[in-house]
Write a structure and sequence with these properties.
Chain lengths: 391, 273
């Protein structure tokens, strides 16, 4: 028992070292992994309902992956030494795996995007003029063979790449969970469930983001939103959100039930410092409400009119995006709000304009979206110049 | 009865006589000690001034790290919370304000098990009287610092190998390699590490590596007026710390973490984490 009102922190524990940037980092890589798994639904598992977003989800994954290192670079004390993690990694550290996992996944994703869009690239290289002709010629990498046999080969390679890509995406994001789960000094992080929780919530954020992006993209283009696609995504989203919330609760219930030394500090953390972001955001607004909304879509699918189904999934997905962000916040920041003394708490309120502040985080969230729009301009995912069977 | 009284008086007389003699003897010793202390103090500080300007973590000339294996002993029963060690450390190592390579915690515990703990400015300026709101029945100071673990969680998680263990048992950070990711700070269960705001790299106690490799003691050990801090070399047979570790009941902080600290504690209470 410690004296009520005491707030004793170890003198070096006054600051939250891992800032908002380290909340953004797993959020962004989560979207990468999640979007890739959605694309694999079509490319590996052959789920025809996912065809309308098969290519778009690949571009989403790539857009976010290209931005995934930015929050880290902004956070490092010496970003100019960042490449040391790749050049001279020390593999006793989980963090040293970053270089290998990131590069490997980037390679797989680039190859897959290229192969999936190859037929279009060749077509654009032939039909466009001026600068764009050169641009697509470079993208085509000198391969113009789009015979049926070549495309069939492409398809085989795509399936293999996507199949490798699933474990690669899981590793990339599971590793982020492991960074936290492997810290025995922090009871709020240290659990073998952490990588699994990160992974499952990554899938949730990926599907949710695609539901939102897809609907916005279709609205902008003035095209009809594919309803079988939306209901399949809603079903998948519902399944994964149930899984993620179950796992998140399971971890806390275990801690509460075991009542070990750390529960005292975690209990205070949950009921005071994180009461809003955990209970209100992560559990009620972000989980309970979308659970009900998606349940409606899943169970009453036949009785719903299209606009209602679109609205329900859109709202549920937006709320789930908040849920996943709240979860990342609660893990990363929550784990640093208590001192290692287990007897005191510190505050963290990011400023708007500071280097690792709110504005930087908003920019990091917007940047991949802009990049996605640009990528979608270069390699249009929804309009295929060639046959619709091109993938 | 009379005889008894007489002998009693004789005895007490005898005692007083002995006491007087001892008093003079002790007085002389004390005067000599004070003279030595006052005489040496200026030399100490001037020496500290010289070494502080030297390159940190540079071993002395001809130093062989295979011949040493260091350990640190803290006797919490002796600590008086004066903060000399914290001041000496920050002078010696130019520790930035608001961060601590070593610090002193004060514990007040009541009979009912209530605990009050504080460490204002790391105990640097000593401690003011407090009224914790309960009747404390025991109180003590606990000096803390990097535990220089054998099974090092901080070095383990360093992605670039900037944090490492030396062969003589010290955990150091290479400022020129550290990327400033802060992972080691998260991994240390003792709160011993911090991110130096000036160099933007991880920083921590080095046991004054630049001093111990020249045969000197760490600044905090040298500064402690009561001998609560002891520094030893386990490869030396006549070492005091080695003897105490072998013969006394010692403890380490957060033993359940299995980090195998090389900072050992005497008389540490269960309330101390």
């Amino acid at each position: 028992m410690f004296f009520e009102g005491i707030n004793f922190l170890f003198p070096n524990d006054m600051y939250v070292h891992w800032s908002l940037m380290i909340v953004m980092y797993p959020y962004i890589t989560g979207l990468v992994a999640g979007a890739f798994i959605v694309s694999s639904m079509y490319h590996v598992f052959g789920k025809e309902e996912f065809r309308p977003i098969g290519r778009y989800s690949l571009l989403t994954s790539l857009a976010f992956l290209l931005c995934a290192t930015l929050p880290l670079l902004n956070h490092l004390g010496h970003p100019e030494r960042a490449l040391n993690i790749m050049v001279t990694p020390k593999f006793s550290s989980a963090m040293a795996g970053f270089g290998v996992l990131y590069s490997f996944y980037l390679l797989i994703l680039l190859l897959e995007v290229w192969l999936v869009f190859r037929q279009d690239i060749v077509e654009y290289a032939r039909t466009s003029t001026g600068f764009w002709r050169w641009f697509y010629k470079i993208l085509a990498l000198g391969v113009y063979d789009v015979s049926e046999k070549a495309l069939e080969n492409d398809h085989k390679v795509i399936t293999v790449l996507a199949a490798i890509g699933i474990p690669a995406a899981c590793m990339l994001h599971g590793y982020v969970g492991f960074l936290f789960g492997g810290i025995k000094a922090n009871p709020w992080w240290s659990t073998a469930l952490m990588p699994v929780i990160f992974l499952v919530s990554a899938v949730v954020s990926g599907i949710a983001a695609l539901v939102v992006f897809y609907q916005i993209a279709m609205k902008m283009r003035g095209e009809k939103i594919d309803q079988p696609c939306i209901s399949s995504m809603a079903r998948l989203l519902w399944l994964f959100m149930i899984l993620t919330v179950t796992l998140e609760l399971l971890e806390i219930i275990t801690l509460a039930y075991e009542k070990a030394e750390e529960w005292e500090v975690i209990h205070t953390l949950l009921t005071n410092q994180l009461s809003f972001s955990f209970f209100s955001l992560q559990m009620i607004l972000g989980a309970l409400i979308p659970f009900i909304l998606l349940m409606t879509v899943v169970l009453m699918d036949r009785h719903l009119r299209d606009p209602l189904r679109n609205t329900l999934t859109f709202v549920a997905s937006s709320l789930l995006l908040i849920q996943v962000f709240a979860m990342r916040w609660n893990v990363v920041i929550g784990g640093q709000l208590f001192s290692k003394s287990f007897r005191g708490f510190r505050d963290y309120h990011p400023h708007f304009l500071e280097k690792e502040g709110v504005l930087a985080a908003v920019m990091l969230a917007v940047l991949p979206c802009i990049l996605l729009v640009v990528l979608n301009r270069i390699l249009p995912a929804f309009t295929s110049k060639t046959s619709p069977q091109s993938e | 009865m009379k005889e008894d009284k007489k002998t009693e008086i004789e005895k007490t007389d005898n005692k007083e006589e002995l006491g007087r003699r001892e008093f003079i003897k002790k007085g002389c010793e004390l005067a000599f000690g004070a003279f030595l202390f006052l005489g040496i103090l200026p030399i100490r500080t001037s020496r500290a001034g010289i070494t502080a300007s030297a390159e940190p973590e540079t071993p002395g000339e001809g130093y062989n790290w295979e011949e040493h294996y260091y350990a640190y002993l803290i006797d919490t029963r002796k600590c008086i919370g004066c903060g000399m060690c914290v001041r000496a450390c920050s002078l010696e190592n130019k520790v930035p304000d608001g961060f601590y390579r070593t610090w002193v915690e004060r514990y007040e515990v009541s009979e009912r098990g209530e605990v009050y703990i504080d460490s204002p400015k790391g105990g640097r300026e000593g401690f003011d009287p407090i009224f914790p709101g309960f009747h404390s029945t025991k109180a003590f100071f606990v000096p803390k610092m990097c535990n220089h673990c054998d099974n090092t969680p901080c070095s383990q998680v360093c992605p670039v190998g900037a944090s490492y263990n030396t062969k003589d048992g010290v955990v150091l950070v290479d400022e020129k390699r550290c990327v400033g990711c802060g992972y080691c700070i998260q991994a240390c269960p003792y709160g011993s590490r911090f991110l130096n705001p000036i160099t933007r790299t991880a920083n921590k106690c080095t046991w004054c590596y630049h001093r111990i490799t020249k045969g000197l003691k760490p600044a905090c050990v040298q500064a402690c007026p009561v001998g609560a801090r002891k520094f030893g070399d386990l490869k030396r047979e006549d070492d005091e710390v080695r003897r105490i570790l072998a013969t006394e009941r010692i403890n380490v902080l957060q033993a359940e973490m299995l980090t195998k600290p090389k900072c050992y504690y005497l008389g540490v209470d269960r309330e101390v984490r």
